[in-house]
Amino acid sequence: MNKLFNPMKIRNLEVKNRIAVPPMVIYNRTDDTGYVTDIQVEHYRKIAQGGPGLIIQEATCVEKDGRLCDSQIGIWEDGQIEGLKRITNAVHETGTPIFVQIHHGGVFGFMEETVCPSDIECMVKGNMKIQSTHTYGIAPDSELICRCRRTGI
User: Which of 33, 85, 116, 129 has its CA 20 to 30 A from that of 102?
Assistant: First the structure.
């Protein structure tokens, strides 16, 4: 137990203790644009003020059609970066590092034609969902991969 409050290094990152806040999707804190709101910034600020060693920001969608619900934050367009920086800055003010969990809902996405890496069949809310209408592989030169590289993901 005494190690829990000791600092440690994760590669070249020093964290003040071993308490990490895992990513948790916060539904209904944004609209269908995926942009960060003031409520989200304050939510992360309050978590950071509690003193964890590390925060992992909620699942942040890399593609609009890959969300679990229409009110999930995203990083699929450049305009969303500013809001994500606001969260990062609010957390960094407390001396706490923050990671982002990039995310794609795949077959569990809420869109009628979800995007999946391959044909898949699974149970969703008790119903069989067969996804084979919109599959793709992500090519190294795809717009999604290029955007991720440009933004440092």
Answer: 129
